[in-house]
């Protein structure tokens, strides 16, 4: 048998999860011109692109233009897409070992973190991740309902996901109808009574997780005023000292932008978005349905690792809200036969090489993206992340550390066809894409999304 990575015996890689980290795995391999590969990209949905389709906000079309580069990667002759195929259901570790030299997990982090406060299970308490997937038309979440008859809503957390959720709630109907938000969400939000949205940050503006363009964009909403309480928008001495010493550019800009909103009178727009700082939820209140949220005022202190942390005071407040979204980060979930770090919500790994948790490499298994490093960074962060893993894969190929597949290169296609009759190829996806874009053109929108798997399969087959 010729050497692995040669034209006659290409390195066979299965990539589980067709989001940004999956596509950057392909493009990183393409940089090794002398190594021949066969890369098979699997996704449990019929649609590729992961959070670019189902997470990035519907009004952020520019961010979604990365899919043009992903298209190019997917259309290379050595790349195949197996959509509508779920690892652990249609394909298992034993199958992968028989057909591939290496497996890359880039399946993201779809679960949410909890607040651990009483009342979190009351009606009206949701994760922001569910709401995001719902308004983006993810088929598994399209059926969800949110009580948008409520006038006041609290979002816990001040990361970019919280900002997205706040913006979707505060947009006008016309602003939403110019986007590719799922139709069911546009219609539900058109009937919404929401007038007051609170974003609750446990630390100050200098420690906020949102980024400057996102916080600036809030001030450009057509019919929503931004409110920041004067004393909460002002920088405390500890944060000022830290900014002076460390000068993080985003933090400096965030502080400046929040300072601009602080203490400004409201202009009488029909919605208000209040961004609160130095407050933590202590209880979601109500019998069955949320009636309010109890928050405690925090003060900041320097912990023994030099981080500025929040500490509760004895100063409490209650906000009368009927809906609460917790937006305190995503978390990965375990996959069959893959070592998982429960506390971190990610796969045990060293630079992307899967380990057994005791530092020993698990031969043939790799990971990239949020399931490797946790839910941080922007889309482009996955490029360098996948690069790091692919470098390890190439080193391991050269050192002979890999599975030894026994089946032919083509055998997997018929196996998948037998396990999933509604298998979706990249050509099938291209038909779904063309259908959605054409439907969008008719309405002056980027696309009208299909939100059910049977509808996607029907369109793919009708082509
Ligand atoms: P994130 O950036 O990690 O923000 C999480 C927020 O939750 C922080 O404000 C954090 O506060 C807060 N938090 C955590 N635990 C809490 C608790 N127990 N009580 C109260 N607050 C708590 O997470 P994310 O917003 O889900 O975003 C995930 C990643 O996607 C980020 O890297 C983000 O930048 C990226 N993203 C980017 C865009 C964009 O570029 N437009 C859009 C969406 C998402 P502390 O800081 O005090 O921990």
UniProtKB/TrEMBL annotation:
FAD binds at residues 21, 51, 370, 377-379. Gene3D superfamilies: FAD/NAD(P)-binding domain (3.50.50.60), NAD(P)-binding Rossmann-like Domain (3.40.50.720). It comes from the Bacteria. NADP(+) binds at residues 202-203, 214, 377. InterPro entries: FAD/NAD-bd_sf, Ferredox_Rdtase, Ferredox_Rdtase_adrenod. Keywords: FAD, Flavoprotein, NADP, Oxidoreductase. Its cofactor is FAD. One of its GO terms (molecular function) is oxidoreductase activity. Belongs to the ferredoxin--NADP reductase type 1 family. This is NADP oxidoreductase.
């Amino acid at each position: 048998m010729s050497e692995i990575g040669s034209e006659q015996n290409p390195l066979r890689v299965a990539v589980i999860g067709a989001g940004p980290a999956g596509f950057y795995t392909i493009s990183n391999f393409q940089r090794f011109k002398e190594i021949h590969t066969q890369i098979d990209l699997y996704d449990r949905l019929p649609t590729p692109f992961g959070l670019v389709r189902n997470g990035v906000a519907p009004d952020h079309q520019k961010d979604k233009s990365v899919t043009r580069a992903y298209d190019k990667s997917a259309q290379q002759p050595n790349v195949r897409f197996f959509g509508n195929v779920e690892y652990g259901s249609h394909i298992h570790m034993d199958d992968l070992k028989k057909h591939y030299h290496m497996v890359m997990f880039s399946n993201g982090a779809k679960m949410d973190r909890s607040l651990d406060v009483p009342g979190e299970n009351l009606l009206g308490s949701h994760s922001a991740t569910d709401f995001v997937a719902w308004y983006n038309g993810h088929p598994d979440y399209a059926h969800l309902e949110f009580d948008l008859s409520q006038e006041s809503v609290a979002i816990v957390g001040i990361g970019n996901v919280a900002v997205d959720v706040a913006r979707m709630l505060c947009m006008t109907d016309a602003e939403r109808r110019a986007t590719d938000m799922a139709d069911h969400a546009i219609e539900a939000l058109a009937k919404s009574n929401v007038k007051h949205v609170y974003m609750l940050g446990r630390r100050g503006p200098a420690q906020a997780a949102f980024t400057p363009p996102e916080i600036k964009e809030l001030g450009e909403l057509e019919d929503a005023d931004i409110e920041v309480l004067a004393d909460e928008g002002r920088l405390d001495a500890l944060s000022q000292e830290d900014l002076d010493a460390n000068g993080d550019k985003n933090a400096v800009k965030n502080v400046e932008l929040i300072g601009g909103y602080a203490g400004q009178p409201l202009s009488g727009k029909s919605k208000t978005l209040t961004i609160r700082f130095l407050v933590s939820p202590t209880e979601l209140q109500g019998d069955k349905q949320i009636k309010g949220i109890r928050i405690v005022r925090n003060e900041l202190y320097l912990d023994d690792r030099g981080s500025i942390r929040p500490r509760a005071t004895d100063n409490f407040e209650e906000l009368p809200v009927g809906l609460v979204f917790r937006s305190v980060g995503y978390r990965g979930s375990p996959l069959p036969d893959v070592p998982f770090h429960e506390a971190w919500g990610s796969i045990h790994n060293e630079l992307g090489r899967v380990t057994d948790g005791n530092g020993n490499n698990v031969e043939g298994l790799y990971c990239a993206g949020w399931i490797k490093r946790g839910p941080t960074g922007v889309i482009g962060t996955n490029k360098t992340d996948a690069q790091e893993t692919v470098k390890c894969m190439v080193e391991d190929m050269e050192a002979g550390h890999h599975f030894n597949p026994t089946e032919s290169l083509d055998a997997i296609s018929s196996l998948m066809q037998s396990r999933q009759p509604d298998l979706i190829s990249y050509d099938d996806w291209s038909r779904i894409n063309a259908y959605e874009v054409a439907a969008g053109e008719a309405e002056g929108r980027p696309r009208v999304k299909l939100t059910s798997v049977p509808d996607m399969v029907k369109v793919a087959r009708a082509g």
